[in-house]
Amino acid sequence: MKLSCMASLAALFIALPAAAQPSARPMGPGSMPVFADFDGNGDGRITEQEFTDARSKRIAERATEGRAMRGLSQAVDFKEIDTNGDGALSREEFEANQSRHVQNRPMSPAR
């Protein structure tokens, strides 16, 4: 009994560091990207190049999956999201844009 309990605890302590690591999030239908998806170098700011690269990658992945590109023509420009005009997106600017995007989404019909 003690041995199996100790083995379980050991397995838990081995698994905890792995669980704490960021993992790839599944990007299923309707999922929203998060700040880290765009902050390529992890410096806490998203440059216009990082934004463009991440957006292009997301579009390419969705196209490869055969997913619809609804709303792409209405996608906001980097400069519209960069509300303070400093040439980089803060987490707050990015998340404010995501919130606006969610609020402006058409509601899905009930199933």
UniProtKB/TrEMBL annotation:
PROSITE patterns: EF_HAND_1, EF_HAND_2
Keyword Signal set for record: yes
Top-level division of the source organism's lineage: Bacteria
Disordered: region residues: 22-44, 79-111
Entry keywords, A to Z: Signal
Leader peptide range in chain numbering: 1-20
InterPro entries in the record: EF-hand-dom_pair, EF_Hand_1_Ca_BS, EF_hand_dom
Domain EF-hand as annotated: residue spans: 34-61, 78-104
Pfam families assigned: EF-hand_7
GO molecular function, one term: calcium ion binding
Name of this protein: EF-hand domain-containing protein
Organism name: Hydrogenophaga taeniospiralis CCUG 15921
The organism's taxonomic lineage, starting at the top: Bacteria, Pseudomonadati, Pseudomonadota, Betaproteobacteria, Burkholderiales
